[in-house]
Amino acid sequence: MKAMILGAGKGTRVQPITHEIPKPMIPLVRKPVMEYLIELLKKHGVDQIMVNTSHLAPIIENYFRDGEQFGVSMAYSYEGYVESGVAISSPVGSAGGMKKIQDFSGFFDETFIVLCGDAWIDLDISKALEIHRQKKAIASIIIREVPNDEVFKYGIVALDEDDRILQFQEKPDPKDAISNLANTGIYIFEPEIFDYIPSGVAYDIGGELFPKLAQAHLPFIGINLPFQWLDIGNVQDVWTVTSQILNGEVAGFKMPGREVKPGVHVGINLNVDFDQVNITPPVYIGGSTKIEAGATIVGPAVLGASCVVESGAVIKNCIVEDYTRLTSQANLEGKIIFGSKCIDPIMDTQVDIAEARLEFMIEDARKLIEPDAE
Q1: For the chain, what is the domain count?
Q2: Rg (CA), the chain
Q3: CA dist., res. 281 & res. 25, Å (int)
Q4: Which end of the chain, N or C, is less surrounded by CB atoms within 10 Å?
Q5: For position 369, what pLDDT does the model report?
Q6: Strand, helix or coil for residue 20
């Protein structure tokens, strides 16, 4: 079976993280969110996956390559061009990305699935496919209820008694919303869908294709199944979802590494004396990390691989990127350390570590590595 993962967006609401990596590569406790999607698709019999890429495309393509190591076959449709030796991102919209692939090869020759690459889900895809086929739909959206004051974040649908979508609103003002049934970014399509998508232009699924299908009174349905949907639409979502995972609130999520103490999961090759550090779970510590005696880590927290936490450092409720050195003067709470930025996900603020002169407590751990003597 075939599927497509939408991976071309710039992820503006997740900046500055997406200055460094594309949105589908944002890690949820060490693993890119897109990898979880591939695992789920494979579980439900999907073995051919297309990904449209654009922003920082090589990061996705070099990680997943042809998909063989994940037990599937994968290929990519790049949306952009090169000018003066520089790759320029030029996405063509979610529906346009589908159409570009179809015009190129006719790849989508059977019922297929399309997923946004920015959410962890455990949907019973096989059940959703069964409903889609029973309803003889040309297009199906997996939907779910959201709080009324959050409808502005999503596409919103109105259904009739047979679950046919009568109206589709893209991110309405709460006072104008026709319901609180939200588009989750999970779709099932028949190849006939391409009759409604123009070629060679930017075209959006939610903003353009779905309203057209509803207005044409086509067999376009909403499927409301119980499942976990952890959307990482913005920086605060990244923090919230990571906290839920660490706190054991996400049923079925398998923590990486091994559990050395209740709620403390670790990778290999650590330099840590757990009797000499102050750790309050839940915490994940990446491989090859060094934590000196007298350091304090309060969860929920994730320390990446090859980090150094010096004696006296206090780290509370933080996500810390790989290769980060936190000096004895570090006292951080509720922060995401990523790239050159120190991000406060709750206040939605960020500071540049160098510009704010924070290197005295946050630095690249690789600067400690001495070059080999000649």
Answers
A1: 2
A2: 22
A3: 26
A4: C
A5: 57
A6: helix
Beta bridge partners of 351: 342
Domain shared by 181 and 48, yes or no: yes
The token duo for 189 is 């399509």
Decide: residue 148, CB within 10 A, 0-12 exposed, 13-18 middle, 19+ buried. exposed
Residue at 124 is within a domain: yes
- Compute the distance between CA of residue 152 and CA of residue 327 in angstroms, rounded to an integer: 42
Please give the span between the terminal C-alpha atoms of the chain, in angstroms, as a whole number. Answer: 56
- On average, the pLDDT of the chain sits at 93
Range of the domain at 325: 255-368
User: What mean pLDDT comes out for the span 119-135?
Assistant: 96
What the block records as the tokens of 192 is 């006939």
Q: Is the pLDDT of residue 308 over 70?
A: yes
Residues 235-253: tens digit of each pLDDT: 999 999 999 999 999 998 9
H helix or E strand, kind and range, residue 341 = strand 341-344
Cβ neighbourhood burial of 88 (10 Å; 0-12, 13-18, 19+): exposed
Kindly indicate the confidence band of residue 320, based on its pLDDT and cuts at 50, 70 and 90: very high
Provide the whole-model pTM. Answer: 0.91
* DSSP line for 141-159: EEEEE--GGGGGGSEEEEE
Average pLDDT over residues 151-179: 91
